[in-house]
Design brief:
Rossmann fold; mainly beta
Length: 140
């Protein structure tokens, strides 16, 4: 679920519910500094999380990261190499390091930059979707 100026995927999630697709959303575990992904059957399955965002009820079925085919990743900004600027907690980087799924960053065109500072723990995405294009990330 979107925070601040991040792209909202609510319409895509709602359409996935209607089409009978499996939807898993992240649950934030502050003390452990990690994310787990839980099945969501409708928006009524969501509860307020630690950052004020709606998250799945942790009682909902959890999935193994290896079973996910595609992960959509929000961000404040991305660069053309696929690196992401988030809110600084490192939750997504820790999760993405373990995930084999296609990693798709989602942002508005104005949030796409030529280059961002990169730290050793940063994990790039494979593709970036904006409202007007798809970018295949180039590792230089």
């Amino acid at each position: 679920m979107a925070k601040g100026k991040e792209v909202s995927l609510s319409k895509a999630i709602g359409k996935s519910f209607i089409e009978g697709k499996e939807v898993y959303l992240p649950k934030t575990w502050i003390k452990e500094r990690r994310l787990t992904f839980h099945r969501v059957y409708s928006f009524s399955d969501l509860v307020p999380g630690p950052f004020g965002l709606l998250e799945p009820n942790p009682k909902n079925e959890e999935t193994d990261l290896g079973s996910l085919e595609v992960i959509f990743i929000p961000g404040l900004a991305f660069d053309v190499r696929g690196y992401r600027l988030g809110y600084g907690g490192g939750f997504y980087d820790r999760m993405l390091r373990e995930a084999s799924a296609l990693k798709v960053g989602v942002c508005y065109s104005f949030q796409l930059l030529e280059s961002l500072p990169v730290e050793p723990h940063d994990v790039p995405v494979d593709l970036i979707l904006t409202e007007d294009r798809i970018i295949q990330c180039q590792r230089l």
